[in-house]
Amino acid sequence: MKRLLMTSAALTAFGGAAMAQTEISMWYHGAGNQVESDILNGIVSDFNESQSDWTVTVESFPQASYNDSVVAAALAGNLPCIMDVDGPVMPNWAWSGYMQPLSIDEGLIEDFLPGTLGMWDGELYSVGLWDAAVALYARESTLEELGLRRPTLEEPWTGEEFMAALDAARDSGNYEYALDLGMNDQGEWYPYAFLPFLWSHGGSLVDRETYASAEGALNGEAGIEFGEWWQMLFEEGYAPGTSEDPADQTRGFIEGDFAFQWNGNWRAVATMEEVDDVIFLPAPDFGAGNFIGGGSWQFGVSASCPNPEGANAFIEFALQDEYLAAFSDGIGLIPATSSAAAMTENYAEGGPLAVFFDLSNDQARLRPVTPGYVVQSEIFTKAMADIANGADVIDTLDAAVDEIESDIEANQGYGHE
Q1: Distance between CA 384 and CA 234 in Å, rounded?
Q2: Among 48, 124, 105, which Cα is nearest to 310's?
Q3: Fold of domain 23-132+295-366
Q4: Which CATH number is 134-292+372-415 given?
Q5: Residue 133 phi/psi, 5° resolution?
Q6: Based on the number of CB atoms within 10 Å of its own CB, is 323 exposed (0-12), middle (13-18) or buried (19 or more)?
C-alpha cells in the first residue's frame, strides 16, 4: 500500500509539472501610463487564462529610456521574447538581428491600417494595435471669422490656400501666432510631423527607391523650396520657434493664442473638452500630394526568443477587435481596424474623432523604411531646428545630406540592394 501511495504522489507531481505554463517574457514602453498599463495587463491576463501552454510576464520601461534599454540588452544577449517597437525604428532592429519575422495568421491583419504593419525586407516583423495621425486643429468660428473654405480629404487646401489662411489669421490681430507647430519637442516629433511637408513639396529625406543616397532628395530643388518656406514661417512670425515654452504649446490653441495647430490625435480628447467647436483638418497639398506620418508602436518577437511559438500566439491573441477598441477608448489613439473603430466612442462613424481614422487610412505615409532611419531622423531634426533658427538653407541641407551619405556608406548600405 505504501508503494502504491508513493507512485500516486509521483504521478501527481509529474502531472503538475506537465501542466505548468512556459514563461514568455515581454517588455513594454508604457511605464508611468497607468491606463495603458492596465489595458495591456488585462490582455496578458486574458491570454494567460485562455490556454495552458504559455504565461506572459510584463516588464515596463519609461518611454524615454526604452530604446536604449533594448539596444543594451541586445548587445548583452538579454532580450525578452516579446517587445514593442516604434514603427520607424523596427527596420534597424530587424537589420541588426534583434528581431525575427512574425509567424502569425496574416488573415488576421488583412483589414489593419497600413501604418500598423511593420515590414522589412519583404517580411512582417511587427504589428500595432493602433496608429496615430496628425491634423490641423482649427475652430469652426475661426474659419467663419476669416472667411475660409473648410478643406476636406477630397479637396484639401492647396499650399496657396494654406498660406492665405495663415495670412488672414496673422493680419486679423486676434492671435499671438497664426500657427503652432510644436517646435519645443525636438525629438521624433520633427520627422514624424514635418517630413510630410517636405514630401508635399516634392522632396524626401532619402531616395525611397534605393535608400542608398539622400543627394538630390533632401537638398534638391524641392528640398530647397521646402527649406525656404520652412524658414519663412519663423522669420515672418507665423509660428513660434524652437524656444517655445512647452506649457504655451500645450495651452496655446485651447486659450486662443494660436489660430491653427499642427497636432496629433492623442491631444484631441483633451482639446475637445475645452474647445467646443474644434475641428480637425487634413494636411495641405503644396503640389506633390498631401501627407501625414504613419506608423506607431507595434509588437514583435526577438531573434533570441527560445519560445517564438508562444510569443506569436500572444500577438495573435492581442489582435482581437475588443482589445484594439479598449486601447483606443483608453488612450485616444486610432484603432487598427474599421470594425474595432465601430466599437469605440470616438472613432465610430459620426464620432468626433472618426476623421482621424480616415486621415490615417488615406493620407498616412511611413517614414523611410530603412535601418538608417534612426540616424537620418536625428540629422533631419537638427537641420529643421537650425533652419528655423536662421541657418542658411542650402548649406544646412547640403551638410545634412553629407552626414546621411557618410552613415549609409559606413554601414555598407544598410542591406539595401
Answers
A1: 11
A2: 48
A3: D-Maltodextrin-Binding Protein; domain 2 (3.40.190)
A4: 3.40.190.10
A5: -145, 155
A6: buried
Of the candidates 257, 239, 238, 237, which has an alpha carbon nearest to the alpha carbon of residue 247?
257
161-177 confidence digits (pLDDT tens):
999 999 999 999 999 99
| Residue 224 grid cell | 530647397
Q: How many residues are present in the chain? A: 417
Q: Grid coordinates in use for 307?
A: 519560445
Residue type, 241: G
Phi-psi group of 32: left, alpha or beta (phi > 0 → left; psi -120 to 50 → alpha; rest → beta): left
Reported in sequence order, the residue ranges of 202-350 that DSSP labels E, i.e. its strands, are 258-264, 278-281, 292-294, 297-302, 334-335
Beta bridge partner(s), residue 55: 23
- The model's pLDDT over 335-350, given as tens digits with 9 standing for 90+, comes to 999 999 999 999 999 9
**CB–CB of 80/25 below 8 Å?**
yes
Report the predicted TM-score, pTM, of the whole model to 2 decimal places.
Answer: 0.92
Q: Tell me the three cell numbers of residue 18.
A: 506537465
